Amino acid sequence: MAQKTIAGVTVQVDGEGYLENPAEWTKEIAQEIAAEIGITLTDKHFEVIDYLRKQHAAGAQLSIRKVGKSGIVDIKGLYELFPGGPLKFSTKIAGIPKPASCV
Amino acid sequence: MNKEVNEKPLKKVCIICAKGTIEDVYATLVMANGAVMEGIEAKVFFTFFGLDAITKKQMKKIHTGAVGNPAMRMPGGLPFPSILGMLPGVEAGVSAMMKSQMAKLDIPPVDEFLEMITAGGGEIYACKLAMDMFKLTEDDLWEGCSGVLTIGDFYGKCGGENTQIIFT
Question: What is the CATH number of the domain that holds B126?
Answer without folding.
Answer: 3.40.1260.10
